[in-house]
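Q: Mind making up any chain with C-alpha coordinates?
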Amino acid sequence: MNRPPRTVPVLLSAALAVAVPLVVVSSAPASADTALPRISSAPPRDGGCVKPSKKRPADVPWPQQYIAPSRAWETTRGAGAVVAVVDTGVDARNSPALAGRVTPASDAAGTDCIGHGTFVAGLIAAAPRSGTGFAGVAPEARIVAVRATAADGTATANSVAAGIDAAVARRARVIDVPIALAKGSPALTAAVRGAVRSGALVIAPAYASNRSLTGSGDTPAPAAYPAALPDVLAVAGLGPGGVPDQRLAPRTAPDLAAPGTAVMSIGPGGTGSFTGDGAELATAFVAGAAGLALAAHPQLTPAQLTDRLTATAYHIPAGKALVGAGTVDPVAAVTAPLATAAAVPDPPGPAALRMPPPEEHGGRTAAIAVASAAGVAVLVTGFVAFTLPRGRRRGWRPGTPESG
Protein backbone atom coordinates (compact mmCIF):
# COMPACT_ATOMS: atom_id res chain seq x y z
CA MET A 1 0.00 0.00 0.00
CA ASN A 2 1.70 3.20 -1.18
CA ARG A 3 0.96 6.16 1.08
CA PRO A 4 2.50 9.68 1.11
CA PRO A 5 3.89 11.18 4.34
CA ARG A 6 1.19 12.53 6.62
CA THR A 7 0.48 13.66 10.17
CA VAL A 8 -0.58 10.65 12.23
CA PRO A 9 -0.06 9.19 15.69
CA VAL A 10 3.05 7.07 15.24
CA LEU A 11 4.11 3.89 16.95
CA LEU A 12 7.14 4.08 19.21
CA SER A 13 10.01 1.97 17.85
CA ALA A 14 12.76 0.29 19.81
CA ALA A 15 16.10 2.05 19.98
CA LEU A 16 18.04 -1.17 19.75
CA ALA A 17 17.10 -4.25 17.77
CA VAL A 18 17.93 -7.45 19.63
CA ALA A 19 18.28 -10.69 17.76
CA VAL A 20 16.88 -13.64 19.67
CA PRO A 21 18.14 -17.05 18.53
CA LEU A 22 15.47 -19.63 17.77
CA VAL A 23 15.57 -23.37 17.41
CA VAL A 24 12.57 -24.51 15.43
CA VAL A 25 11.32 -27.67 13.81
CA SER A 26 8.97 -27.58 10.83
CA SER A 27 5.48 -28.84 11.41
CA ALA A 28 2.67 -30.21 9.26
CA PRO A 29 -1.06 -29.47 9.45
CA ALA A 30 -2.85 -31.28 12.22
CA SER A 31 -4.32 -34.56 11.04
CA ALA A 32 -7.74 -33.40 12.21
CA ASP A 33 -7.67 -30.60 9.62
CA THR A 34 -7.21 -32.98 6.69
CA ALA A 35 -10.20 -35.07 7.81
CA LEU A 36 -12.63 -32.16 7.89
CA PRO A 37 -15.01 -31.33 5.05
CA ARG A 38 -13.65 -28.58 2.83
CA ILE A 39 -14.96 -25.11 2.15
CA SER A 40 -14.14 -23.25 -1.06
CA SER A 41 -15.48 -20.24 -2.92
CA ALA A 42 -17.32 -22.53 -5.36
CA PRO A 43 -20.47 -24.60 -4.76
CA PRO A 44 -20.21 -28.35 -4.13
CA ARG A 45 -19.50 -30.31 -7.31
CA ASP A 46 -22.55 -32.48 -6.81
CA GLY A 47 -24.80 -29.41 -6.75
CA GLY A 48 -26.91 -28.06 -3.92
CA CYS A 49 -25.58 -26.38 -0.83
CA VAL A 50 -22.74 -27.28 1.52
CA LYS A 51 -23.92 -29.91 3.97
CA PRO A 52 -23.43 -29.31 7.70
CA SER A 53 -20.32 -30.82 9.23
CA LYS A 54 -20.57 -33.30 12.08
CA LYS A 55 -16.91 -32.98 13.09
CA ARG A 56 -15.64 -30.76 15.90
CA PRO A 57 -11.93 -31.28 16.68
CA ALA A 58 -11.01 -30.48 20.26
CA ASP A 59 -7.47 -29.34 19.43
CA VAL A 60 -6.56 -25.68 19.08
CA PRO A 61 -5.96 -25.09 15.34
CA TRP A 62 -2.43 -24.20 14.32
CA PRO A 63 -3.29 -20.61 13.23
CA GLN A 64 -4.56 -19.80 16.74
CA GLN A 65 -1.38 -21.19 18.21
CA TYR A 66 0.74 -19.31 15.69
CA ILE A 67 -0.67 -15.78 16.06
CA ALA A 68 -2.12 -16.27 19.58
CA PRO A 69 -5.07 -13.83 19.44
CA SER A 70 -6.20 -14.78 22.95
CA ARG A 71 -3.19 -12.88 24.32
CA ALA A 72 -5.03 -9.73 23.29
CA TRP A 73 -8.26 -10.75 25.00
CA GLU A 74 -6.95 -9.52 28.34
CA THR A 75 -7.41 -6.04 26.84
CA THR A 76 -10.29 -6.54 24.40
CA ARG A 77 -12.26 -9.25 22.64
CA GLY A 78 -13.44 -6.89 19.95
CA ALA A 79 -16.66 -5.61 21.51
CA GLY A 80 -17.80 -2.52 19.65
CA ALA A 81 -15.92 -3.32 16.45
CA VAL A 82 -18.00 -3.81 13.29
CA VAL A 83 -16.38 -5.98 10.59
CA ALA A 84 -18.05 -6.58 7.23
CA VAL A 85 -17.59 -9.78 5.23
CA VAL A 86 -18.21 -9.14 1.54
CA ASP A 87 -18.51 -12.67 0.21
CA THR A 88 -21.15 -15.39 -0.20
CA GLY A 89 -23.24 -14.32 2.79
CA VAL A 90 -23.19 -15.57 6.37
CA ASP A 91 -25.50 -18.23 7.81
CA ALA A 92 -26.74 -16.03 10.62
CA ARG A 93 -29.60 -18.29 11.71
CA ASN A 94 -27.70 -21.58 12.08
CA SER A 95 -24.30 -20.43 13.39
CA PRO A 96 -24.31 -20.55 17.22
CA ALA A 97 -20.75 -19.24 17.43
CA LEU A 98 -21.94 -16.00 15.82
CA ALA A 99 -25.38 -15.85 17.43
CA GLY A 100 -26.70 -12.34 17.95
CA ARG A 101 -23.73 -10.66 16.28
CA VAL A 102 -24.51 -10.89 12.56
CA THR A 103 -26.31 -8.10 10.70
CA PRO A 104 -27.22 -9.15 7.14
CA ALA A 105 -27.08 -6.31 4.63
CA SER A 106 -29.94 -8.00 2.76
CA ASP A 107 -32.19 -11.03 3.16
CA ALA A 108 -29.93 -13.02 0.85
CA ALA A 109 -26.83 -12.08 2.86
CA GLY A 110 -28.25 -13.85 5.93
CA THR A 111 -27.97 -17.22 4.18
CA ASP A 112 -24.92 -18.97 2.76
CA CYS A 113 -25.32 -21.94 0.43
CA ILE A 114 -21.62 -22.09 -0.45
CA GLY A 115 -20.31 -21.56 3.08
CA HIS A 116 -17.27 -19.42 2.29
CA GLY A 117 -18.60 -16.25 3.91
CA THR A 118 -19.65 -18.10 7.06
CA PHE A 119 -16.21 -19.69 7.26
CA VAL A 120 -14.51 -16.29 6.98
CA ALA A 121 -16.86 -14.71 9.51
CA GLY A 122 -16.02 -17.52 11.93
CA LEU A 123 -12.30 -16.89 11.58
CA ILE A 124 -12.94 -13.26 12.43
CA ALA A 125 -15.45 -13.47 15.25
CA ALA A 126 -16.58 -16.96 16.27
CA ALA A 127 -17.05 -17.24 20.02
CA PRO A 128 -15.26 -20.05 21.89
CA ARG A 129 -17.45 -23.13 22.22
CA SER A 130 -17.34 -26.12 24.53
CA GLY A 131 -15.87 -29.20 22.90
CA THR A 132 -13.69 -27.46 20.33
CA GLY A 133 -10.46 -25.50 20.54
CA PHE A 134 -11.42 -23.18 17.70
CA ALA A 135 -12.37 -19.52 18.20
CA GLY A 136 -12.27 -16.38 16.09
CA VAL A 137 -9.67 -13.67 16.49
CA ALA A 138 -12.17 -11.11 17.83
CA PRO A 139 -14.93 -13.20 19.44
CA GLU A 140 -17.08 -10.25 20.52
CA ALA A 141 -16.92 -8.24 17.30
CA ARG A 142 -20.06 -7.75 15.23
CA ILE A 143 -20.28 -9.00 11.64
CA VAL A 144 -22.04 -7.26 8.76
CA ALA A 145 -22.85 -9.96 6.21
CA VAL A 146 -22.80 -8.80 2.58
CA ARG A 147 -23.41 -11.02 -0.42
CA ALA A 148 -21.36 -10.00 -3.45
CA THR A 149 -21.38 -13.29 -5.37
CA ALA A 150 -23.68 -15.08 -7.77
CA ALA A 151 -25.16 -18.51 -7.07
CA ASP A 152 -22.03 -20.18 -8.45
CA GLY A 153 -19.76 -18.20 -6.12
CA THR A 154 -18.39 -15.90 -8.79
CA ALA A 155 -18.09 -12.16 -8.33
CA THR A 156 -17.41 -9.17 -10.55
CA ALA A 157 -15.66 -5.91 -9.82
CA ASN A 158 -19.00 -4.13 -9.84
CA SER A 159 -20.68 -6.65 -7.52
CA VAL A 160 -17.79 -6.30 -5.07
CA ALA A 161 -18.05 -2.53 -5.35
CA ALA A 162 -21.74 -2.71 -4.46
CA GLY A 163 -20.84 -4.96 -1.53
CA ILE A 164 -18.29 -2.48 -0.20
CA ASP A 165 -20.84 0.30 -0.51
CA ALA A 166 -23.36 -1.80 1.44
CA ALA A 167 -20.79 -2.41 4.18
CA VAL A 168 -20.07 1.32 4.43
CA ALA A 169 -23.79 2.07 4.65
CA ARG A 170 -23.96 -0.19 7.71
CA ARG A 171 -21.06 1.60 9.38
CA ALA A 172 -18.49 -1.19 9.16
CA ARG A 173 -15.01 0.07 10.14
CA VAL A 174 -13.25 -3.00 8.74
CA ILE A 175 -14.32 -4.48 5.40
CA ASP A 176 -12.98 -7.93 4.59
CA VAL A 177 -13.28 -8.79 0.89
CA PRO A 178 -11.96 -12.38 0.64
CA ILE A 179 -12.16 -12.22 -3.15
CA ALA A 180 -9.38 -11.83 -5.73
CA LEU A 181 -10.46 -10.61 -9.16
CA ALA A 182 -8.39 -10.48 -12.33
CA LYS A 183 -9.70 -7.02 -13.21
CA GLY A 184 -10.96 -3.97 -11.40
CA SER A 185 -13.45 -1.33 -12.48
CA PRO A 186 -14.12 2.38 -11.96
CA ALA A 187 -16.96 1.43 -9.61
CA LEU A 188 -14.63 -0.70 -7.50
CA THR A 189 -12.05 2.06 -7.28
CA ALA A 190 -14.74 4.53 -6.26
CA ALA A 191 -16.13 2.14 -3.65
CA VAL A 192 -12.72 1.73 -2.02
CA ARG A 193 -12.22 5.48 -1.97
CA GLY A 194 -15.64 5.93 -0.43
CA ALA A 195 -14.84 3.36 2.24
CA VAL A 196 -11.65 5.19 3.20
CA ARG A 197 -13.50 8.51 3.37
CA SER A 198 -16.06 6.91 5.67
CA GLY A 199 -13.33 5.67 8.02
CA ALA A 200 -13.27 2.01 6.93
CA LEU A 201 -10.25 -0.14 6.12
CA VAL A 202 -10.65 -2.55 3.18
CA ILE A 203 -8.70 -5.82 3.38
CA ALA A 204 -8.32 -8.26 0.46
CA PRO A 205 -6.08 -11.16 -0.71
CA ALA A 206 -2.99 -10.33 -2.74
CA TYR A 207 -3.76 -13.30 -5.02
CA ALA A 208 -6.44 -15.89 -5.59
CA SER A 209 -6.46 -19.51 -4.46
CA ASN A 210 -7.87 -20.55 -7.84
CA ARG A 211 -5.02 -22.22 -9.76
CA SER A 212 -5.84 -20.33 -12.94
CA LEU A 213 -5.20 -17.07 -11.09
CA THR A 214 -2.32 -17.94 -8.76
CA GLY A 215 0.35 -18.58 -11.36
CA SER A 216 2.55 -21.65 -11.33
CA GLY A 217 5.81 -22.51 -9.65
CA ASP A 218 7.63 -20.63 -12.42
CA THR A 219 5.35 -17.61 -12.78
CA PRO A 220 4.14 -15.14 -10.18
CA ALA A 221 0.46 -14.78 -9.36
CA PRO A 222 -1.11 -12.01 -11.43
CA ALA A 223 -2.46 -8.77 -9.99
CA ALA A 224 -5.58 -9.21 -7.86
CA TYR A 225 -8.38 -6.75 -7.25
CA PRO A 226 -9.38 -5.02 -5.02
CA ALA A 227 -6.04 -5.67 -3.29
CA ALA A 228 -4.11 -3.98 -6.11
CA LEU A 229 -5.93 -0.68 -5.52
CA PRO A 230 -4.45 2.11 -3.37
CA ASP A 231 -5.47 2.08 0.31
CA VAL A 232 -6.45 -1.62 0.29
CA LEU A 233 -4.50 -3.80 2.73
CA ALA A 234 -3.22 -6.76 0.68
CA VAL A 235 -2.73 -10.08 2.50
CA ALA A 236 -0.60 -13.12 1.66
CA GLY A 237 -1.13 -16.65 2.98
CA LEU A 238 1.13 -18.79 5.16
CA GLY A 239 1.29 -22.50 5.86
CA PRO A 240 2.08 -24.11 9.23
CA GLY A 241 5.35 -22.81 10.61
CA GLY A 242 5.08 -19.52 8.71
CA VAL A 243 6.04 -20.82 5.27
CA PRO A 244 4.66 -18.62 2.45
CA ASP A 245 2.20 -20.39 0.18
CA GLN A 246 3.78 -18.76 -2.91
CA ARG A 247 7.26 -19.42 -4.28
CA LEU A 248 7.48 -16.20 -6.29
CA ALA A 249 6.42 -12.69 -5.35
CA PRO A 250 2.87 -12.01 -6.57
CA ARG A 251 2.19 -9.07 -8.90
CA THR A 252 0.17 -7.41 -6.15
CA ALA A 253 2.64 -6.73 -3.36
CA PRO A 254 1.41 -8.01 0.03
CA ASP A 255 1.29 -5.67 3.00
CA LEU A 256 0.90 -8.43 5.61
CA ALA A 257 0.72 -12.19 5.88
CA ALA A 258 -1.45 -14.53 7.95
CA PRO A 259 -2.29 -18.26 8.11
CA GLY A 260 -3.96 -19.47 4.93
CA THR A 261 -3.27 -23.20 4.65
CA ALA A 262 -5.13 -25.98 6.50
CA VAL A 263 -7.27 -23.35 8.23
CA MET A 264 -10.21 -24.48 10.39
CA SER A 265 -13.43 -22.59 11.05
CA ILE A 266 -17.18 -22.95 11.29
CA GLY A 267 -19.51 -23.41 8.33
CA PRO A 268 -23.18 -23.17 7.51
CA GLY A 269 -25.87 -25.32 9.03
CA GLY A 270 -24.77 -25.89 12.61
CA THR A 271 -21.85 -26.31 14.97
CA GLY A 272 -19.51 -28.48 12.89
CA SER A 273 -16.03 -27.55 11.65
CA PHE A 274 -14.64 -27.22 8.14
CA THR A 275 -11.21 -26.63 6.63
CA GLY A 276 -9.98 -24.50 3.74
CA ASP A 277 -6.97 -22.91 2.09
CA GLY A 278 -5.99 -19.67 0.41
CA ALA A 279 -4.93 -16.08 0.92
CA GLU A 280 -8.65 -15.28 0.84
CA LEU A 281 -8.92 -16.95 4.24
CA ALA A 282 -5.76 -15.27 5.51
CA THR A 283 -7.57 -11.93 5.19
CA ALA A 284 -9.90 -12.97 8.01
CA PHE A 285 -7.07 -13.15 10.55
CA VAL A 286 -5.97 -9.65 9.58
CA ALA A 287 -9.56 -8.39 9.69
CA GLY A 288 -10.00 -9.90 13.15
CA ALA A 289 -6.78 -8.26 14.38
CA ALA A 290 -7.97 -4.95 12.90
CA GLY A 291 -11.23 -5.36 14.80
CA LEU A 292 -9.37 -5.91 18.05
CA ALA A 293 -7.16 -2.87 17.42
CA LEU A 294 -10.17 -0.68 16.66
CA ALA A 295 -12.00 -1.90 19.76
CA ALA A 296 -9.01 -0.80 21.83
CA HIS A 297 -8.30 2.36 19.82
CA PRO A 298 -11.54 3.49 18.16
CA GLN A 299 -10.06 6.84 17.12
CA LEU A 300 -7.77 5.24 14.52
CA THR A 301 -8.23 6.26 10.89
CA PRO A 302 -7.84 3.62 8.14
CA ALA A 303 -4.29 4.85 7.46
CA GLN A 304 -3.38 4.76 11.14
CA LEU A 305 -4.89 1.30 11.52
CA THR A 306 -2.85 0.10 8.56
CA ASP A 307 0.30 1.57 10.10
CA ARG A 308 -0.44 -0.13 13.41
CA LEU A 309 -1.02 -3.55 11.83
CA THR A 310 2.08 -3.40 9.65
CA ALA A 311 4.40 -1.76 12.21
CA THR A 312 3.55 -4.37 14.83
CA ALA A 313 3.85 -7.37 12.50
CA TYR A 314 6.60 -9.79 13.45
CA HIS A 315 9.15 -10.95 11.00
CA ILE A 316 9.59 -14.31 9.39
CA PRO A 317 12.48 -15.46 7.20
CA ALA A 318 10.61 -14.95 3.91
CA GLY A 319 11.27 -11.65 2.17
CA LYS A 320 8.98 -8.64 2.03
CA ALA A 321 8.01 -9.42 -1.56
CA LEU A 322 6.29 -12.60 -0.34
CA VAL A 323 4.91 -11.58 3.06
CA GLY A 324 5.01 -7.79 3.26
CA ALA A 325 5.76 -6.45 6.72
CA GLY A 326 5.47 -9.94 8.23
CA THR A 327 2.88 -11.94 10.13
CA VAL A 328 -0.03 -10.11 11.69
CA ASP A 329 0.32 -9.95 15.49
CA PRO A 330 -3.02 -9.33 17.23
CA VAL A 331 -1.67 -8.71 20.73
CA ALA A 332 0.93 -6.19 19.54
CA ALA A 333 -1.65 -4.47 17.34
CA VAL A 334 -3.75 -3.95 20.47
CA THR A 335 -1.12 -3.17 23.09
CA ALA A 336 1.66 -1.29 21.25
CA PRO A 337 2.05 2.22 22.72
CA LEU A 338 1.26 5.32 20.69
CA ALA A 339 3.08 8.64 20.71
CA THR A 340 1.41 11.68 19.17
CA ALA A 341 3.71 13.42 16.72
CA ALA A 342 3.01 16.49 14.62
CA ALA A 343 3.95 16.84 10.95
CA VAL A 344 6.15 13.78 10.78
CA PRO A 345 6.65 11.35 7.89
CA ASP A 346 5.49 7.77 8.05
CA PRO A 347 7.08 5.89 10.98
CA PRO A 348 10.02 3.58 10.36
CA GLY A 349 9.06 0.32 8.73
CA PRO A 350 8.64 -2.94 10.64
CA ALA A 351 12.34 -3.71 10.17
CA ALA A 352 13.01 -1.34 13.07
CA LEU A 353 10.99 -3.55 15.40
CA ARG A 354 13.01 -6.76 15.05
CA MET A 355 10.54 -8.83 16.98
CA PRO A 356 11.35 -12.56 17.08
CA PRO A 357 9.28 -14.79 14.80
CA PRO A 358 6.60 -17.06 16.27
CA GLU A 359 7.23 -20.60 17.25
CA GLU A 360 6.05 -23.39 15.05
CA HIS A 361 3.41 -25.64 16.48
CA GLY A 362 1.61 -28.95 16.07
CA GLY A 363 3.11 -30.73 19.07
CA ARG A 364 6.63 -30.78 17.63
CA THR A 365 7.80 -27.24 18.36
CA ALA A 366 11.26 -26.86 19.78
CA ALA A 367 11.82 -24.51 22.70
CA ILE A 368 12.98 -20.95 22.13
CA ALA A 369 16.45 -20.40 23.51
CA VAL A 370 17.02 -16.80 24.59
CA ALA A 371 20.65 -15.83 24.86
CA SER A 372 21.59 -14.15 28.12
CA ALA A 373 23.47 -11.44 26.26
CA ALA A 374 20.31 -10.53 24.36
CA GLY A 375 18.43 -10.32 27.63
CA VAL A 376 21.01 -7.94 29.06
CA ALA A 377 20.81 -5.79 25.96
CA VAL A 378 17.05 -5.58 26.31
CA LEU A 379 17.31 -4.55 29.94
CA VAL A 380 19.85 -1.87 29.08
CA THR A 381 17.51 -0.30 26.57
CA GLY A 382 14.85 -0.07 29.27
CA PHE A 383 12.42 -2.41 27.52
CA VAL A 384 11.39 0.52 25.36
CA ALA A 385 8.45 0.57 22.97
CA PHE A 386 7.23 -2.81 21.84
CA THR A 387 9.85 -4.85 23.67
CA LEU A 388 8.35 -4.15 27.10
CA PRO A 389 4.72 -5.12 26.40
CA ARG A 390 5.80 -8.18 24.45
CA GLY A 391 8.28 -9.24 27.11
CA ARG A 392 5.69 -8.97 29.85
CA ARG A 393 2.84 -10.58 27.94
CA ARG A 394 4.68 -13.33 26.05
CA GLY A 395 7.80 -14.15 28.01
CA TRP A 396 9.81 -13.54 24.80
CA ARG A 397 7.81 -16.26 23.01
CA PRO A 398 5.53 -14.70 20.40
CA GLY A 399 2.89 -17.10 19.16
CA THR A 400 3.14 -19.52 22.07
CA PRO A 401 0.41 -22.21 21.99
CA GLU A 402 -2.84 -21.44 23.71
CA SER A 403 -4.28 -23.65 26.29
CA GLY A 404 -7.40 -24.09 24.17
Residues 279-296 form the longest helix (18 residues).
